């Protein structure tokens, strides 16, 4: 199996069309790549959490205006990290590899290998569940890619703007061009619906494997990005009614602990973590005072998520990884906020408030001081504000800003202080869409994003 994994990593290099010379594309895959003897071998590929659950994208999070990197430390970052933080037009300046692209296409490669090899085995509950997991992980990777490397989803234009190159085979010679954005999202939805169809509940509580709640949760998240609030709500409410997960009561946690949240705690539906880079260390990525001050004094997250250092800086300690690694999986708390937002958006404000208050009772010392206005826009903004505060450093904020920017009442510029000057990026600026890595464009002929 180790030899097989080594070969997979070699061919993944070709698959992502990034870190390999063009000569690699003329080579035929070693016959050993097909030497799989059991479905357990295939499941082991999907259980390789260092590939499948780790290394979710960080560039969007690094771009958010809620964090600060000391100016003296910017020069210590890689070129892409420094330029991403500074919202530069040319992010890469010829730098290679671009890991947010590469690691996600590596996940897709692993998933496609599993889906291809499964056809050699009889169909039973074990093979169905492995197929379900592979489809989920392919959708999981595309879900992250589309938020970084494509425009926000606008139903009126999604059929005509560019999406992702959709990879459905493990053939390194197959180099698809970019689909439409609508086709990309439909591909993700189709994978998840098929994943749910094949899922068999035989794996217990292993949170690095997708269970039915995780599949539904990702569907809900995708429909939210698409603005299909009825479908997003349907999935969210199904999870809340049937999941084994439970909201953590933050009043029961120790705010003085170095890491207040335990790994694989009861609120986690699916476990994943953000790619660690020098720019994203907790000692370097500091919390803005303004963002910290947005938390009410009765909000328990203010002390559980952040700590004051002796030098006056604010640092994050609230990861569900129980470490300095940033959690980027799915929690029941996020699902409650989706249910609240979708209810408000479809005109069921009372129901939205019900979900929101059920959630906030687990986050605030008390909720009697909260004043929620009942008009739709104010209530929507209240839910969005809670979402921003709850999902800090989870890899979700950039996608949220892109979808808010498509709405006149929610769009707003983001600003950052740099070298004593304020720089601003307007809503819907082309820089919200990251460029495809330059070597990928050169070797594959993909159409580049306009910056």
Automatic annotation (TrEMBL):
Pfam families: SusD-like_3, SusD_RagB. Keywords: Cell outer membrane, Membrane, Signal. Gene3D superfamilies: 1.25.40.390, 1.25.40.900, 2.20.20.130. It is found in: Cell outer membrane. One of its GO terms (cellular component) is cell outer membrane. Its main location: membrane. Belongs to the SusD family. This is SusD family protein. It comes from Sphingobacterium wenxiniae.
